[in-house]
Amino acid sequence: MALSPLHPGEVLLKEFMRPLGLTAYALASRCRMSRTRLERIVRGNAAVNADTALRLAKFFGTTPEFWMNLQTRYELETTAFKIGKELAAIKTPKRVAA
């Protein structure tokens, strides 16, 4: 059985916010971003964009790439599931000898 794609908001909440006892309000305030935006990310209703990745990376001492990679992986996995039948129908051409 395959696992559901992991949204970056879930990682943010479970691996960063809860262990540090941070509320969305406190984290948003410290990162100088909208509390509403942060709450939407944590709920899985919004994506982590470059601006958010930079702010989270600065606050938590990670890299922006860490956050962007989580988002990219989530988007690839969810999209692959949605268009799986269409992807399966695409035939890779055979290589032509040079």
Brief summary of the model shown:
The protein has 98 residues and is mainly α. It has six helices and no strands. It has a domain of 66 residues: lambda repressor-like DNA-binding domains (434 Repressor (Amino-terminal Domain), Orthogonal Bundle).
CATH architecture group name of the domain at 8-73: Orthogonal Bundle
Strand content: under 5%
Q: Using the CA coordinates, give the radius of gyration.
A: 18 Å
For the sheet with most strands, the description reads: none
Q: End-to-end distance, in Å?
A: 43 Å
The level of helicity is 55-70%
Could you tell me the CATH topology label of the domain at 8-73: 434 Repressor (Amino-terminal Domain)
State the main characteristics:
98 residues; mainly alpha; 434 Repressor (Amino-terminal Domain)
